[in-house]
Specification:
It is a single chain. The protein is mostly beta strands and about 375 residues long. The chain has two domains: about 55 residues, no CATH class; about 300 residues, no CATH class. It is built from no helices and ten strands. The strands form three sheets. The chain has a four-stranded antiparallel β-sheet with strand order 1-10-3-4, with no helix packed on it. It has a four-stranded antiparallel β-sheet with strand order 2-5-6-7, with no helix packed on it. The chain has a two-stranded antiparallel ribbon with strand order 8-9. Strand 8 and strand 9 form a beta hairpin. It is rod-shaped.
Length: about 375
């Protein structure tokens, strides 16, 4: 009997039938059935069934969910993101000159689990370095520069407008008021002189998270320290606790001709990058013959004095203090630290250290 027409293999890897010889095997890794053969032919076999397969589809995690901005730019919320954590640190204020006050730390604001929508665009501004007061200058150190994080609403996410204020500049002894006053800002600058007020921190007043989500502490920052007739007060820091005499701000300078410069206010540690890093420490005050103030949390710059070597910044983070006519130490880069106050050295005194630039950090949460 003549054989008929063989059947074709089914879609999905099935083997075709044959009229002679072995059946056609199914395609590998498809799970298809093997082709049959004509039973009247001896010593032939049907085609082998195809081997199976398991396929998994998954979304690979991004290489990093933490984005660090040391300069202004933009951030686009990636696909799959449901919320963000953020840290916005403003630039620190510059230190005052000639026994000047320490610069105030840049404002420190945080938020966690803030709702976002994929494709939402955030505009980011990072506060730049603020110069310290020039030697023999008649003005206080420059105010720090603001940092901000903002975005229009994108349902279901709200709009955002988070601004951290730059630190206040430190007062200078060669200046009359208001140049000898500490400047207001995220944290206040230290002043020079017993009658010149230190700067006020958390100015303008904000809660740390900017009103989005649960309130957080600390607020932007603290007050600067009061100066004396021979030394500058320390710049305020963002820390919520401090051993210093002026609340949680920079320490007041010691009185007397050999008074010590005030220490800068402590900063605040953040683990948003996965590692604990401290930001927003105040600058130490400068002085005539005592011990210059140290920068808060080794983030603010150390002050300088006239006759002695000033203290060393810890852990290679805070800048080393200097003596004689050298410029005071600046705040640690991109930490929002205040600049140190310059020493008294005649005839012009030492210049104030620069307040360091700020930083904006965003952590993306995918669940």
């Amino acid at each position: 009997m003549a054989p008929g027409t063989v059947g074709a293999g089914g879609a999905g890897g099935g083997g075709a039938g044959t009229t002679s010889g072995n059946g056609v095997p199914a395609t590998a890794n498809t799970g298809g059935g093997g082709g049959g053969t004509y039973s009247g032919v001896a010593a032939v076999t049907g085609g082998a069934g195809g081997s199976g397969i398991v396929i998994l589809k998954y979304t690979a995690p991004t290489s990093s969910n933490v984005f660090v901005y040391k300069a202004s730019g933009a951030f686009v919320v990636p696909t799959g993101a449901v919320s963000i954590d953020y840290l916005v640190v403003a630039g620190g204020g510059g230190g005052g000159a000639r026994s000047g006050g320490g610069g105030g730390a840049g404002g420190f604001r945080t938020g966690a689990n803030q709702t976002v929508n994929a494709g939402q665009v955030f505009t980011i501004a990072v506060g730049a370095t603020a110069p310290g007061a020039a030697a023999a200058g008649t003005a206080r150190g420059s105010a720090g520069n603001d940092s901000s994080l903002s975005a229009p609403s994108s349902s279901p996410a709200p709009s955002y407008s988070i601004t951290s204020t730059g630190g206040g500049g430190g007062g200078s002894s060669a200046a009359s008021a208001p140049g000898a006053n500490g400047g207001n800002g995220g944290s206040g600058g230290g002043s020079y002189g017993p009658s010149n007020p230190a700067g006020t921190g958390n100015t303008p007043s904000f809660s740390s998270d900017g009103g989005n989500g649960s309130p957080a502490n600390p607020q932007q920052g603290r007050n600067g320290g009061q100066g004396s007739n021979s030394a500058g007060g320390g710049g305020g820091g963002s820390g919520s606790t401090s051993p210093f005499t002026d609340g949680n701000g920079g320490a007041a300078a010691d009185v007397g001709p050999n008074g010590n410069g005030g220490n800068g206010g402590l900063g605040t540690a953040s683990t948003i990058t996965g590692t604990s890093v401290t930001y927003s420490g105040g600058g130490g005050g400068g002085c005539l013959a005592g011990t210059a103030g140290t920068g808060g949390s080794s983030v603010g710059g150390n002050g300088t004095n006239n006759r002695r070597t000033a203290g060393t910044g810890g852990s290679s983070v805070g800048g080393n203090g200097t003596n004689n006519t050298s410029t005071a130490a600046s705040g640690a880069a991109n930490k929002g630290g205040g600049g140190g106050g310059g020493g008294f050295t005649s005839p012009n005194g030492g210049a104030g250290g620069d307040g360091s630039a700020g930083v904006v950090i965003i952590k993306v949460n995918y669940s």
